[in-house]
Amino acid sequence: MVRITKTSSLAAALCLIGASLTAQPALSAAARLPFNSSFEAGTFAEWNGGLDSSMTVTSSMATDGRYSTQSVMTAGRPTDNYKEYVFGDNRRVAGEVADDGVWLTFDSRFDTGFHFADGAGVHKIAIINLEDVNDGRRRYQIIINVIPRSGEYFVDHLKWNADGSFGRTMPNVSQNIGTPATVRFGQWDKLKLYIKQNTLGQANGIVRFWVNGVLKGEHTDVQLRENVNVFPNKLIMSNYVTESTAYGTQRWDNWHLSETDPDGSAVRPNPPVLNSVQ
């Protein structure tokens, strides 16, 4: 009897452990996700390279921890700054695809006195690439921009051809809910993006965009990859500007990229608060 009781107790315990493990949230399926970067190493070590002629890690201000990234733009000089992070089935990773889309959140700031380039149509902040796993060429891009003339945040959707040439700008990913959100110069804004690629050949891809916790854009009819079998697999922190009339300081902090909503379904994030460093 005693032996049976011990065996039964052990079996029951194992069942409870198994049930507990089963109840835990599933680990991310896509390779190298989730990704977090607040630059707390004081370097770009969390990222996978890129040009940074005027992009540096700084301790002058931050929204998470002590450090953030800044780009100081100077009038008379074009700017091509970027840092990238590869994930999923990117050819440099060759892992599992992000087949259910990705969520991106980060903090963005344009310092007081920042001047967007004269005549420029957009100013880039962040990019998600859908790249071909065979040759590494970008086929589609989702870009978080600012429209210089109005200061409005804008999500751009670009198609690239198989030979590497530019295809066209795709429609239907602008702010379409309420009053358009604009840059608050001298303050941090929390930006959040969800994208999910369409079923091949169908217009059912999803793009949702939040500014400081408020949903500003929602599109559920996007041909996010048309009929090309590519998936989100590269994140780019960017402020590429070809015009040379932009000047001022642009900043980024507190990056998070994952396959699940980092805020959950019931949490509405507040705008980030500046952490001063003495």
Automatic annotation (TrEMBL):
Coiled coil: none annotated. Residues 1-25 form the signal peptide. Pfam families: Polysacc_lyase. It comes from the Bacteria. The keyword Membrane does not apply. Keywords: Lyase, Signal. Residues 258-278 are annotated as: Disordered. The keyword Thylakoid does not apply. GO terms for molecular function: lyase activity. This is Heparin lyase I family protein. It comes from Steroidobacter flavus.
